[in-house]
Amino acid sequence: EDMREYAVSDTRYLLDIYDQLRLELNEHSSPEVSITSVLDRSKQVCLIRYDKVPFRPSGYLTIMDGGRRRRNTNKNSKVTSELSPQQESALKALYDWRDRTARHEDE
Length: 107
Known about the structure:
- The protein is mostly helical.
- 63% of the residues lie in helices and 0% in strands.
- The radius of gyration is 23 Å and the shape is elongated.
- The two termini are 18 Å apart.
């Protein structure tokens, strides 16, 4: 029931928005800005396939080094931090849990 209410509230203004956009597009005389061009571009966007980013077990390391690992081209570089082994283990467990939860909620 909550999801239905959310869908209704999320789509309530779509017809009004469509009418407003249609009117604005009709005011332009340029072929690049027309209903046809917008619909064609929309079709192109709809054809783009989304591929989920694979889980990276070592991704928690970017948290420890402030994202420098992502920018560093040397994959053998060691991440150093002020976390104890126990804290690092907890961070890794939280990182894994958060990723699993987010992927499950996205389904």
